[in-house]
Design a protein that fits this description.
By secondary structure, this protein is α/β, with parallel strands linked by helices. 36% of the residues lie in helices and 13% in strands. Helix 1 runs parallel beside helix 10 and helix 2 crosses helix 3. The protein starts with 5 loop residues before the first strand and ends in an 8-residue tail after the last helix.
Length: 330
């Protein structure tokens, strides 16, 4: 296996790879993925040095968790830290975020993953009021005490939610959308996380593929792909799809971004490198639908840091082309 840079995952005693693997797509929420292809992607990631998988109990109604559990049962030597999420199996009201539900959701995830104790459980973009509830975090502490989970974190939609969560002493990590087309977390969230010793898991790193520079106006996504059914926030927060950016505006910006790619790298790797080198980022979690994508994403960790002039151009591109077109809650 290739050795990759490892970073401490916030308030845990575990290290994870700078590039992890997001596994939403393995639940078949981005179009169908055969089991054999899913296992090949997991294997390619591990062989490329990935030691961090991110999943959720609702990805494919548990399919992603089950595939990971089966894979790791056959690869006990892989040393993978698995983060899952909970909360989206119930109506999105704060009243559902209670200990009894947490235990039930945990039982299902533990069975899916085939473990007694979950490495890390994240609240899955809950209602904003949840972050201010002492009872919610007391319940999470109870899960740790019961050894159902080793640690907990949150996955957030907005910077304000992240900052509220960072004030909680038990929060080990914050997962947030961060990429060159959505840089606002750099302003307050990442500095606050560094100060608190909380890990930052960067999701939607390629803006749902926009930053890979391979889409055009004529690209057609499958009907069961969220880039079709949630393009305007019809199913969940619009920021999760194309980072909340108008698709055609994003296409034009992606062409410019691709022009910043260092020799020997791809646009997608350049976007991942941009994220990896932001102070405070623990791991970035691109998804992969193929062995080639998994390997290429992992290789971004080996790229040289982008120089300051490139970073300045990336920010100027966002300010000029994208800031005014964003359609999501910050």
């Amino acid at each position: 296996m290739i050795r990759m840079e490892q970073r401490v995952c916030g308030r845990t005693d575990r290290q994870v790879s700078a590039v992890g693997l997001g596994t939403w797509q393995l639940g078949a929420d981005w179009g169908q993925v055969a089991e054999s292809d899913a296992f090949a992607v997991l294997d390619a990631a591990v062989e490329s040095g990935v030691t961090f998988f991110d999943t959720a109990d609702v990805y494919g109604d548990g399919r992603s968790e089950r595939l990971i559990g089966r894979y790791l049962k056959d690869r006990p030597d892989a040393g993978v830290f698995v983060a899952t999420k909970m909360g989206r199996r119930a109506d999105q009201v704060a009243e559902n975020y209670v200990l009894d539900n947490f235990r039930a959701w945990n039982d299902r995830s533990r069975a899916n993953l085939g473990v007694d104790t979950l490495d890390l459980v994240q609240l899955h973009c809950p209602p904003t009021a949840v972050y201010s509830s002492d009872e919610v975090f007391d319940a999470l502490d109870t899960l740790v005490a019961e050894q159902r989970i080793a640690a907990y974190g949150v996955s957030v939609e907005t910077c304000a939610e992240a900052l509220t969560a960072l004030a909680r002493s038990g929060v080990a990590s914050v997962q947030i959308i961060l990429n060159p087309f959505r840089p606002k977390p750099l302003e307050e969230v990442l500095p606050a996380a560094r100060e608190a010793g909380v890990g930052i898991i960067a999701r939607v790193p390629l803006a749902s593929g926009l930053l890979a520079g391979k889409y055009t106006r004529d690209t057609v996504f499958a009907a069961d792909d969220h880039r079709t059914y949630n393009r305007h926030g019809e199913a969940f927060d619009q920021g999760e799809t194309f980072s909340g950016i108008d698709y055609e505006t994003g296409l034009a910006a992606a062409v410019e971004f691709a022009g910043l790619t260092p020799e020997g790298a791809t646009a997608a790797q350049t976007a991942l490198r941009w994220i990896i080198q932001q102070p405070g980022v623990t791991s970035v979690i691109p998804g992969a639908r193929s062995v080639e994508q998994a390997r290429a994403n992992s290789a971004a960790a080996d790229l040289a840091p982008l120089p300051r002039p490139t970073l300045d151009v990336v920010r100027e591109l966002y300010d000029r082309r994208l800031r005014a077109s964003v359609h999501h809650r910050w």
